[in-house]
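Incident log, structure service

09:12 report received: a user says their structure output differs between two submissions of the same chain.
09:20 pulled the input from the user's history:
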Amino acid sequence: MSEFKPITTQEEFDAAIQSRLERERRTAVAPFADYAQIKADLAALKQTSGQKDSTIAQLQKDLQGARTDLAKTRIAMEKGLPAELAARLTGETEDELRKDADTLAALFSDKKGGAEPSRSHEPARRATAGKETADHDGLPTEAFASVLADLNLGGN
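09:34 re-ran on a clean worker, output below:
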């Protein structure tokens, strides 16, 4: 056996425990060797999560818009409004939409009980002593009335 030699300087102490310190450092650092990879993976996940959050927000916005459009169309049909007016309904809730639809329906409803007479855009015919008057080109107004009647401008 070798004889015990006491350590008297710091350098001798450092040399004696150097191998033990290196072994402990390797043991302590080993569980954290993949720290850089985990940090990079976390950053990628945060970015992906942010993109998914914005996609979810956009989809929720689109869904709410579709629900509102559906409610407007349904309420317009219930109130007897033309489909073109469904998009013009305003309100945040169904009650507000229904109130607006009632207002529009009142504007389009027949309040007097009968159809309003249509207004003629033709000038009134004037007869003088059994003869029709001529228009400014010298043609009889009866001829124009006959042509207009044949055109079927009512779309029927």
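09:41 both user submissions now match this output. Likely a transient worker issue. Closing.
09:42 reviewer note: The chain has four helices and two strands. The longest strand covers residues 127-128.
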